[in-house]
Design brief:
There is one protein chain. The chain has helices spanning about 1-20, 70-75, 190-210; strands at about 30, 35, 50-55, 60, 65-70, 85-90, 95-100, 105-115, 125-130, 135-140, 150-155, 160-165, 175-180, 185. With about 210 residues, the chain is of the alpha+beta class. The strands form three sheets. Strands 2, 5, 6, 8, 11 and 13 form a six-stranded antiparallel beta sheet that branches. A six-stranded antiparallel beta sheet has the order 3-4-7-12-9-10, with no helix packed on it. The protein has a two-stranded antiparallel sheet with strand order 1-14. A hairpin with a 4-residue loop joins strand 9 and strand 10. The protein is globular, with a radius of gyration of 25 Å.
């Protein structure tokens, strides 16, 4: 009988562990840095870039590009207007992202669009990164055929990066909202899991008193 009781207790604990996992609060990301391209373009006008810009602790180098003010983008339907400022990188050279002062970082996502409605035909963006400890990681994103910004997401392997390079062979991509250094919030047990563990504890205490 003793062996049966131990097995039953172990089974109950295993079931409650599964229940606890099922009722945990969802994992989310927090403390992300967003490079939103705001504050560079004068009102209702674009800039002309051939150098680097610092934003939120990061440096973004563009060989030739334009920061576009949202009021300028909304003038007509030819621009990929998302209601905020964005960066138009109309050059086939790489656009390079690094952390100011060096140091490793991670990247989670970015928004991108063809720069003009006439180019809405599945442009590709080649993204590669130098790893902080050496080596290279790369991927290719293909934009859909619907003109306008879409969010492109990296997997969890894009971490411990020294630099990230974005390149489009046609030189006609608009960028916005590059999300970097998002940390993961550890999920906590939900109320049902906590209640279940409490019931198990009471049951074990009662079983010990009657043994």
């Amino acid at each position: 009988m003793t062996g049966i009781k131990i097995t039953s207790v172990k089974s109950a604990m295993a079931a409650l562990a599964l229940a606890g996992a099922a009722f945990c609060l969802p994992v989310s990301t927090a403390n992300a840095t967003v490079l939103d391209m705001e504050g560079f373009a004068p009102p209702a006008n674009p800039t002309t870039e051939s150098t680097s810009r610092n934003m939120n602790g990061f440096n973004l180098f563009t060989g030739h590009a334009h920061y576009i003010d949202s009021a300028h983008a909304s003038v007509g339907p030819s621009w990929p207007d998302n209601g905020t400022d964005f960066l138009l990188h109309d050059n086939s050279s790489p656009m390079i992202l690094t952390k100011i002062g060096g140091g490793a970082f991670s990247i989670q996502s970015f928004d991108a669009s063809e720069r003009h409605v006439s180019f809405a035909s599945g442009e590709t963006i080649n993204v590669s990164a130098m790893l902080s400890g050496g080596g290279i990681i790369s991927t290719v994103f293909t934009l859909d055929n619907t003109f306008g910004f879409e969010t492109l997401t990296f997997d969890a392997s894009w971490t411990n990066l020294a630099s990230v390079s974005f390149q489009n062979a046609s030189g006609r991509i608009a960028y916005d909202n590059i999300v970097v250094d998002a940390s993961t919030v550890v999920s906590a047990p939900g109320p049902l899991a906590i209640l279940g563990l409490g019931i198990l504890g009471l049951g074990l205490a009662r079983r010990n008193r009657t043994a």
